[in-house]
Each structure stands twice: as C-alpha cells, then as structure tokens.
Design goal:
Order of helices and strands: HHHEEHEEEE
Largest sheet: 6 strands, mixed
Number of domains: 1
Shape: elongated
Helix content: 25-40%
CATH architecture: Roll
Strand order of the largest sheet: 2-1-6-5-4-3
C-alpha cells in the first residue's frame, strides 16, 4: 500500500511540474537579446539599442534624470557611447519570470570603463513580451562606487577691518 501511495504522489507531482510554464526558451531569447545589446554598444548603434526597448520604456540611470520613451533612450545611449574609451559589459545573474510568462526581471551586474575610470555596479532590467518578442520595459542601474565627496568650497578671506574714523572735533 505504501508503494502505491508513493507512486500516486510522484505522478501527481510530475503532473503539477508539467503545468508550470517552461522559461528556458524565454531565458534563451533574453540572453540572445542581451548579446545583441552588447554588440550594439560596441558598434555604437543607439538605434539598435532603442529598437530593443518598448515604446513606453524607461531608462533610470544613477545621478541623472530618467529617459522615457524609445527616442529619449536612444539619445541617452548616444551620449553614453560618446564617452572616450567606453567599454561596457553586463551579465545576468538571475532571471525571475512572472507566472503570466510575459514579464521577466533580469538581475545582474555591469562594468563600465570610460575616460580612464572604471565603474562597477548592479542592474535590474524588466523585460516584457509583446507580439511574441521580448523588449526592455525598464532599465535601472546603480554604481557600487561611493558617492564622490563634493569639492571643497573656495576659501574667501574676509576684508580686513578698517579702524573707525576718529570723531569730528
């Protein structure tokens, strides 16, 4: 009787597992899109990067205003790719897929060198499936580096006090 119960439980568990949507193909599609994104950065192709974003996408860079919409995101990438000596890589550490199978969160890290300085940080990219294609809905990243101390204010010397004029006779 014990073995019959075990078999029933195993069959039931296997059936539940089969009901869960597989995310392997979606994960592979997003990884391929990330690879194309990195290639577009090397090629300095802001239009290609823009095309990977939804029309209503947002880019949320650190210490800067957000870019809303594909055109604003393209301009943001044009500016970023104009930095001297830009080298940028990013890597996914974890995917989280919504049960609806049309939303994914891509959690990872990045490394960027520009102008002789290197920055490393973390990123969260929200992908949405529209028309059967995965596109970026939100791209947010932040540096691991400490915020730079503000520049010291210039020292202004107070004018020397002038002795008061003697009273008039």
């Amino acid at each position: 009787m014990k073995s019959k119960t075990s078999v029933v439980v195993l069959v039931f568990a296997a059936g539940l597992n089969a009901c869960a949507p597989s995310t392997e193909a979606d994960e592979a599609a997003i990884r391929a899109a990330n690879k194309a994104w990195l290639a577009a950065i090397v090629a300095k192709d802001a239009k290609a990067i823009g095309a990977m974003h939804a029309e209503d996408a947002q880019m949320l860079p650190p210490n800067a205003p957000k870019a809303v919409g594909r055109e604003a995101i393209e301009k943001g990438w044009e500016s970023l790719m104009g930095l001297p000596g830009l080298a940028l890589t990013f890597e996914t550490e974890k995917f989280v897929f919504a049960k609806s199978a049309d939303l994914a969160v891509d959690i990872g890290t990045y490394s960027m060198t520009a102008g002789g300085q290197t920055d490393t940080g973390k990123s969260v990219v929200t992908w949405t499936k529209r028309g059967g294609k995965w596109v970026v809905l939100t791209d947010m990243f932040s540096s691991d580096l400490p915020v730079a101390a503000p520049a010291a204010a210039p020292v202004v010397e107070a004018p020397a006090e002038t002795p008061a004029a003697p009273p008039a006779p």
